[in-house]
TrEMBL record:
It is found in: Mitochondrion inner membrane. It comes from Mucor lusitanicus CBS 277.49. GO terms for biological process: mitochondrial electron transport, ubiquinol to cytochrome c. The gene is CYT1_2. This is quinol--cytochrome-c reductase. It catalyses: a quinol + 2 Fe(III)-[cytochrome c](out) = a quinone + 2 Fe(II)-[cytochrome c](out) + 2 H(+)(out).
Amino acid sequence: MADEGLHPPSHPWPHSGPLDTFDHASIRRGYQVYREVCSACHSLDRIAWRNLIDVSHSEDEVKAMAEEFEYQDGPDDNGEMFMRPGKPADYMPKPYPNDEAARAGNAGALPPDLSLITKARHGGEDYVFALLTGYVDAPGGVEVREGLNYNPYFPGGAIAMAQTLFDGVVEYEDGTPATASQMAKDVCTFLAWAAEPEHDDRKKMGMKATVITVGLVALSVYLKKFKWAPLKTRKIVYNPPK
């Protein structure tokens, strides 16, 4: 089990039910945790600024956040590349220009992209939550190499990423107490949304499809019983003329 890591406990995520949608306030808080804590090492390649509009932030807020970052663009009329403020259509900036730089900045470990992390790891949000909150001292007899940290939920038990979530490390703008477990829950919700931005729309479409399907089935039963059945069971007798 040590090679595979402990199985994470299951949590009742608000969006896990067949008719449940995301907690959008939690998504907003989770983005704040990602931006202030996680984005120093982890990228979010598949999410553009515009994806946040009407999900966790307004259009004006997204434009302002994007403009805080510089993006390379071009070439211009002189064939030169240039830097410009970000736009909602731009994707989230990467913390490192390439994988080699990322490894160099993390003692040889490559921080994974978080766009699909809740889908790429067995256990999804439960695993990420357990990993973020599961740092403990190594038990007796277990040696952890220098530069690594003990976490029983990580395969092998030794992980390069140090514990990053501590009570109060983020100050939520909505006044929610920023405990380590609250921040872990919020960033897991944000990452679950990042893996499935279409989640809420898909469930709404599924509900509409279910209503339409039930209506069509009811109509089919009615037609079968009251329209088609008499035609199916009738008998036509031909009496030839004498």
